[in-house]
Design brief:
The chain is of the alpha/beta class. 39% of the residues lie in helices and 17% in strands. Helix 3 links the parallel strand 3 and strand 4.
Length: 148
């Protein structure tokens, strides 16, 4: 099966390492593209600057978004994304350490498709990642993106 590009907006190096290792070791079909900030996430999605080569930085079929980021928050990126004609259909899974109901409600109010709390246990994280890959990258039907 062809790898499917996944944009990961995450600044924690340990979480990035765990994601990359889990996808690689388990032959999951997600091809991870990592950016650490909201501004870089926007640049990736709009193909600006170093992200202008769509062969190297293809449009993602899924975004994994942390909420606690340096500078602007994941909420800011989600709000921006949902206002972008053509990109607003991109499925977004919040993958964060916050289980606060205010954060969960706000994420869904802004258009998140799913909200998952990171499991600090490596085995639990592996299970979570496998389910993400199975549901969002294998079973789920992808919308067409019409980036401008």
């Amino acid at each position: 099966m062809q790898p499917k590009p996944v944009l990961v907006v995450e600044d924690d190096r340990n979480d990035v390492f765990l994601l990359q290792r889990t996808f690689r070791r388990n032959n999951l079909i997600g091809e991870l593209h990592i950016v650490p900030t909201v501004d870089e996430g926007i640049a990736y999605l709009t193909g600006e600057g170093k992200y202008d080569d769509r062969n190297q930085f293809p449009y993602p079929v899924l975004m994994l978004l942390d909420l606690k980021l340096p500078g602007k928050s994941g909420f800011d990126l989600l709000a921006w994304l949902r206002e972008q004609q053509g990109l607003c259909r991109l499925p977004v899974v919040i993958l964060t350490s916050s289980a606060q109901s205010d954060d969960i409600n706000r994420a869904f109010d802004l258009g998140a498709n799913s909200y998952l709390v990171k499991n600090p246990d490596p085995a639990g994280f592996l299970d979570l990642t496998k389910l993400l890959d199975l549901y969002w990258l294998t079973l789920n039907q992808k919308p067409e993106l019409e980036p401008g």
